[in-house]
Q: What sequence folds into this?
């Protein structure tokens, strides 16, 4: 009985820790920029299949739910190059958004990048004229991209606002693993790139 209670507590602590880190990362390096025009950047994930894989489908849904309620002046930018000889991640995500989710808004494709740094570099020209910028991915990955935008273009990073890529309980069972991986991928962030915006 005691062993079962200990295991239950350990699992609850691990799940809570993963949930807390995801919440924290989703609110780091974002502000409250105003304005009406916005860009939602959806970052791709390696996708050798001919259709969007599970992770890219989730990222598309997170990107589309990040569109402001009055999103008339919103552009969605799908970013990601090809894995091998297949179609670019950006194209696969756009196809999923249009054909499956019936999204009919403004879409831009950035289909050359192979790393998160390149994602950010290559979407910058598409961000110059918008008031608000949202980056949608898993929270740790989105934070990494926001930090990269801050390094490359601090003026544009001031326009970063909260995306809707964190929901309590979503990915709950794997969040501790995602948190461990996130800590590893974010290990090179500077202290001032870890500040939570509330």
A:
């Amino acid at each position: 009985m005691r062993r079962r209670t200990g295991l239950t507590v350990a699992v609850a602590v691990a799940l809570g820790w993963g949930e807390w880190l995801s919440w924290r990362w989703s609110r780091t390096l974002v502000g409250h920029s105003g304005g009406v025009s916005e860009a939602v950047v959806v970052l791709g994930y390696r996708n050798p299949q001919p259709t969007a894989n599970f992770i890219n489908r989730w990222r598309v849904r997170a990107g589309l739910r990040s569109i402001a309620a009055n999103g008339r002046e919103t552009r969605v930018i799908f970013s990601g190059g090809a894995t091998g000889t297949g179609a670019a991640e950006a194209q696969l995500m756009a196809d999923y958004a249009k054909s499956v989710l019936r999204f009919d808004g403004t879409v831009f494709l950035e289909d050359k990048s192979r790393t998160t740094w390149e994602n950010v570099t290559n979407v910058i020209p598409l961000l110059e004229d918008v008031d608000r910028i949202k980056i949608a991915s898993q929270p740790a990955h989105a934070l990494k991209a926001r930090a990269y935008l801050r390094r490359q273009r601090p003026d544009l990073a001031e326009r970063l606002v909260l995306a809707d890529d964190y929901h309590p309980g979503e990915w709950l069972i794997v969040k501790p693993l995602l948190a461990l991986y996130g800590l590893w991928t974010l290990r090179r962030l500077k202290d001032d790139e870890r500040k939570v915006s509330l």
Residues 2-193 form a domain with the Rossmann fold fold (CATH 3.40.50.620).
